[in-house]
């Protein structure tokens, strides 16, 4: 994971009504539609994937209960409740694909941006997603040609997935 505030979009977020997360929401708000497609929100300033959300009656009335896992640390999860009209911060998520050139001894990745020919070496293997890290290292060790997807949210970057390239 890497903190990188190189562009204004890297720290951008939107405020959206909590009800926008509900599957049966009829809001045609552009921000709500973006939210439903990304399924990412900020919980105490931490980017989180929405695992589930449901409308329910609780001690303090009708609330939306969110269950979410941290975007860059799948092992951390949170449960919280909000009123339907409360606003919640939704980060702008950008995902970029790089060609993996090298994994060094310290776990840093050498990545090629094929769109402009530049390389970067400031992204590390994910330390909080052991499955992704071990699968990526195994594929790399088998001499597979790989593309790595790097997400940027609120100035934080990290590897979220990878796939084998087609060298046809």
TrEMBL record:
<dbReference type="GO" id="GO:0043022">
    <property type="term" value="F:ribosome binding"/>
</dbReference>
<protein>
    <recommendedName>
        <fullName>Translation initiation factor 5A C-terminal domain-containing protein</fullName>
    </recommendedName>
</protein>
<dbReference type="GO" id="GO:0003746">
    <property type="term" value="F:translation elongation factor activity"/>
</dbReference>
<dbReference type="GO" id="GO:0045905">
    <property type="term" value="P:positive regulation of translational termination"/>
</dbReference>
<dbReference type="GO" id="GO:0045901">
    <property type="term" value="P:positive regulation of translational elongation"/>
</dbReference>
<dbReference type="InterPro" id="IPR001884">
    <property type="entry name" value="IF5A-like"/>
</dbReference>
<dbReference type="InterPro" id="IPR012340">
    <property type="entry name" value="NA-bd_OB-fold"/>
</dbReference>
<dbReference type="Pfam" id="PF01287">
    <property type="entry name" value="eIF-5a"/>
</dbReference>
<dbReference type="InterPro" id="IPR020189">
    <property type="entry name" value="IF5A_C"/>
</dbReference>
<dbReference type="GO" id="GO:0003723">
    <property type="term" value="F:RNA binding"/>
</dbReference>
<feature type="domain" description="Translation initiation factor 5A C-terminal">
    <location>
        <begin position="92"/>
        <end position="163"/>
    </location>
</feature>
């Amino acid at each position: 994971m890497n903190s990188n505030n190189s562009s204004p979009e890297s720290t951008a977020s939107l405020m959206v009504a909590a009800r926008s997360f509900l599957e049966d929401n009829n809001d045609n708000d552009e921000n709500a539609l973006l939210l439903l497609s990304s399924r990412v929100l900020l919980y105490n300033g931490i980017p989180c994937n929405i695992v589930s959300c449901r409308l329910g009656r609780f001690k303090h009335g009708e609330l939306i209960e969110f269950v979410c896992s941290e975007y860059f640390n799948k092992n951390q999860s949170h449960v919280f409740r909000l009123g339907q009209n409360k606003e919640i911060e939704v980060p702008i998520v950008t995902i970029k694909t790089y060609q993996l050139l090298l994994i060094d001894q310290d776990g840093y990745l050498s990545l090629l941006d094929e769109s402009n020919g530049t390389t970067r070496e400031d992204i590390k293997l994910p330390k909080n997603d052991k499955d992704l890290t071990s699968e990526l290292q195994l594929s790399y060790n088998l001499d597979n040609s790989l593309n790595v997807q790097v997400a940027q949210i609120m100035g934080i970057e990290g590897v979220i997935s990878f796939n084998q390239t087609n060298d046809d």
